[in-house]
Write a structure and sequence with these properties.
The protein is mainly beta. The protein has one helix and 28 strands. A five-stranded antiparallel sheet has the order 1-6-5-4-3, with no helix packed on it. A five-stranded mixed sheet has the order 11-12-13-14-18, with no helix packed on it. Strands 2-28-27-26 form a four-stranded antiparallel sheet, with no helix packed on it. The model is unreliable at about 1-5 and about 10-40 (pLDDT under 50).
Length: about 400
């Protein structure tokens, strides 16, 4: 009898384990993954004097766009992985303690944004809302579909999203091709009223923007845009653009950068009709996430300038990018474009990582997500305080 009872208990435990495993595989349970407690980083990343880089979080496969809650939770979207993460540094030691998988099996959930405690996630063709996402954090609520009328094409279909100063949710719609003349709303940045569902075009002629931010003083929109392929290694440039008002056209597919007429879709005088790039970036660097530096930890020269995550070229004969760059502004005019952090690409053209987004933390440190290595780095300034 005792043996029979033990065998029955063993069978029950095995059955329970199989059921739990099946639920995990089907995505019904949300695994909580421990992060690696690493404070020193030996990656060969080169920074200006006085700066240091540490590992903020590990085991975040596909980490791309980031947004931070008022409670200190970092939400991270992905592209091919289909996941959305939540990261917590509960003991305030500048290293993440817990990594939660909030959602899985989504359709390229690259973009994440917060509004009044709700988390918004952009899939290819729709916007989801997770109400009161941090109450509690380890039990994500079911999503609510906010809007589901974006195109379903996956070519440049992944989206970066953010709420603007006007309260609208800004959502880009990339061109469904390398070079073509698509119908609206392709090749644009739209904005969405999340209360009424009203959608409108804010900027046209934008091939594929995967990062934008608003100037801390003027509240005007700036964004990165990826240039077209197959015009050679050195053209066209990627772009940093400035949308000082609604309704501007930034040239795609007729003109690239400031004066490069497209050989297929260009025409005489094309570039004179459109808004030129505020700053030409490197050709094919795949400029993605960008943020204005609004902290006070870094030296004065970085204040109100723009940090850009350059993901790196995929079809250039000599790879370029795989770095973080900085554009210094005087007023609304870029005056320099320089490398800030590099070393993810070695001298043999092999990449150990690919920066995808940047985010300024409340203490003034800069986070950098890396979707290739599944990491998030923290860059801080520890140099001469008199130079800050």
């Amino acid at each position: 009898m005792r043996l029979r009872t033990m065998l029955g208990l063993f069978a029950f435990c095995m059955l329970f384990a199989l059921i739990v495993s099946a639920y995990y595989l089907r995505g019904y349970l949300t695994p909580v993954m421990p992060s690696v407690q690493v404070t020193n980083l030996d990656t060969g990343i080169r920074l200006p004097d006085g700066f240091s880089i540490t590992l903020y979080a590990d085991r975040v496969p596909g980490a791309r766009s980031m947004t931070l809650s008022n409670r200190g939770t970092l939400f991270v979207g992905t592209r091919g992985e289909g996941r959305v993460y939540a990261l917590r540094d509960d003991n305030q030691d500048q290293t993440v303690d817990q990594v939660f998988v909030l959602a899985d099996e989504l359709n390229m959930p690259n973009g994440v944004a917060l509004n009044n405690g709700d988390l918004y996630v952009a899939e290819v063709d729709r916007i989801l809302k997770y109400p009161a996402i941090e109450q509690p954090l380890d039990s994500a609520p079911a999503p609510v579909v906010v809007y589901d009328d974006y195109p379903g094409e996956t070519h440049h279909g992944w989206k970066f999203i953010a709420f603007g100063p006007d309260g609208w949710l800004y959502v880009p719609v990339g061109a469904p091709c390398n070079i073509c003349k698509p119908e609206s709303p392709f090749a644009s940045i739209t904005r969405l009223n999340i209360e009424t569902g009203q959608r409108e075009i804010f900027a046209n002629g934008v091939r594929n923007s995967v990062g934008f931010d608003w100037h801390p003083d003027t509240q005007e929109l700036w964004f990165t845009d990826n240039g077209r392929d197959w015009l050679g290694d050195d053209q066209p440039p990627d772009e940093l653009n400035h949308a000082s008002e609604q309704g501007l056209h930034f040239g795609y597919p007729h003109c690239h950068g400031s004066n490069l007429v497209d050989p297929e879709y260009g025409f005489e005088g094309a570039c004179q009709q459109y808004r030129a790039a505020a700053q030409a970036l490197g050709p094919h660097v795949a400029a993605l996430g960008m943020r204005f530096y609004n902290g006070d930890q870094f030296p004065e020269r970085y204040r109100s300038g723009i940090f850009i995550a350059e993901h790196g070229s995929w079809n250039r004969s000599t790879p370029i990018g795989y770095r973080v760059t900085f554009v210094r502004l005087e007023g609304n005019k870029p005056v320099s474009y320089e490398v800030f952090a590099e070393g993810w690409l070695n001298d043999k053209g092999v990449a150990s990582g690919r920066p995808a987004d940047v985010l300024v933390m409340p203490d003034g440190a800069l986070l950098v997500s890396d979707d290739k290595a599944g990491r998030i780095y923290r860059i801080s300034y520890e140099g001469d305080r008199d130079n800050r």
